[in-house]
Structure prediction request, 368 residues.
Amino acid sequence: MKIRRVIIRRLKLDLVYPFTTSFGTVRDREFLVVEIQNEDGISGWAESVASSDPYYKEETVKTNLHIMEDFLIPIIQREQIMHPDEVSQLFSHIRGNYMAKAALEGAIWDLYAREKNMSLATALGGVKKQIEVGLSIGIQDSTNELFRKIERGLSQGYKRIKMKIKPGWDVEVTRCVRKEFPTIPLMVDANSAYRLEDIDHLSQLDEFQLMMIEQPLAHEDIIDHAELQSRIQTPICLDESIHSVEDLRKAIKLGSTKVINIKIGRVGGLTEAKKIHDLCQKHNIPVWCGGMLESGIGRAHNIAITSLPNFTLPGDTAASSNYWHTDIIYPEVTVDNGIITVPDEVGIGYKPDMNRITAVTLEEKVFD
Prediction:
């Protein structure tokens, strides 16, 4: 494929409900959408999951724009790319900046699938026609409000509930949830809010039969997580600690994790996500797809990767309406009793809504 044009749009969407984690509260999302056109005018689409602030990872919308414009886009403009798997190698001499790389690579994957007249899921080697999804619930003002959101999610058929925790909102809240909902599939996500000296406190979570505790310790750590896993029964799921298949290899060797959350942006793209999936499958480690408050374009990529066979746990790809008043794709992502049907249309399987995209675009840059 020969790339003719790259268009980067900076968008802003307001969330239906504020979303609170141990990092803070998010009320709207500013993000980048990438459109890459070939010489025939066919476009591939993706989005960057970097946010305005460097709280989840060090990347931001502004740093992504800089890295894309000054380093990554010139690479893909001058190269003849035969397959999207080549992109990560072309970018390999540029350190880090995984979310910027993933956005451009994702658009090339979508473009490739469209050129081949196949769905993105098929292009990736996906086999599942339907995927199970769960609901992620942020830190609430009260347990009653948390109960209300859990009840709403269960009534919609979501296959598991993930609740965010932090010091002061963890063991006792989880105990209340378990008392109210004794049998639901339940997990907690700490977003690196704890330290190894909290091990006795975290071990209290063992009594609640949780599916997992996600990223309890430092965001780059695999050593302390190995010690923590050896001393608690609840499976540890690593998120922020895993940027590559090489990180995963080391974590497996140390015994740092029993479950992996794969986020396309965090690991640098779909090609690396596939490698992580494959190594986990080899070691019988289940994986699931995490969420980053994506718009429908990012959700479409999550749905496609989740069609791979070792995505055996429900992911975070909830319906568009859980987050956005109006999404930027049509049809919007919908969930039927906790199930999303993997689209079989070409590419990501959803159409970008150009009227909606134009209405929420703050800035646009075109690279011919």
About this structure: The first strand starts at residue 3 and ends at 21. The chain is about 35% helix and 20% strand. The chain has a mean pLDDT of 96.
